[in-house]
Amino acid sequence: xxxxxxxxxxxxxxxxxxxxxxxxxxxxxxxxxxxxxxxxxxxxxxxxxxxxxxxxxxxxxxxxxxxxxxxxxxxxxxxxxxxxxxxxxxxxxxxxxxxxxxxxxxxxxxxxxxxxxxxxxxxxxxxxxxxxxxxxxxxxxxxxxxxxxxxxxxxxxxxxxxxxxxxx
Length: 168
Ligand SMILES: Cc1cc2nc3c(=O)[nH]c(=O)nc-3n(C[C@H](O)[C@H](O)[C@H](O)COP(=O)(O)O)c2cc1C
Prior knowledge:
Blueprint (H helix, E strand, L loop, with lengths): L2 H7 L14 H12 L10 E6 L2 H10 L11 E7 L12 H18 L3 E6 L6 H8 L4 E9 L21
Helix pairs in contact: 1-4, 2-4, 3-5
Bound molecules: flavin mononucleotide.
Flavin mononucleotide binds next to strand 3.
């Protein structure tokens, strides 16, 4: 699958085949894709938590009200920002950098045949409890459920000509 196809095939997957594994090598390929995202001044102010421990995954699920797909997902990847890594240089770009990393990760998951769903964490009141579960001061930006899809939502087109201004 090439990039054009992966972008158009990607959908949020909220039902996974229970117990179907995602090998560590594939998780690392997704993480590498995430870390290849563009980053302001290339400061890469991110950190990733891979959670496949069932008890911890269940705690994340309870902490995030819109993450019920974690019940069947093989694992969660929490993309966290590290604002201090940008302090005094280009502070404020860290959520954008993390968002770019999240999208790369989602597309890589599709290209490898997996499904994923981005569950938003930043900005929300959920941040502190997620930090406690993960044992980090980094700021959870996105909780991504990953697994083998058990649904196949149709690709959909989103081209909206009225959102585009051509200044030729
Ligand atoms: C910042 C952000 C936060 C999101 N949070 C959630 C969430 O908490 N739970 C969820 O099921 N989907 C979440 N989504 C997924 C969106 O609902 C989904 O991307 C949107 O409906 C479009 O559907 P598609 O991803 O299948 O194209 C989030 C997406 C983004 C970008």
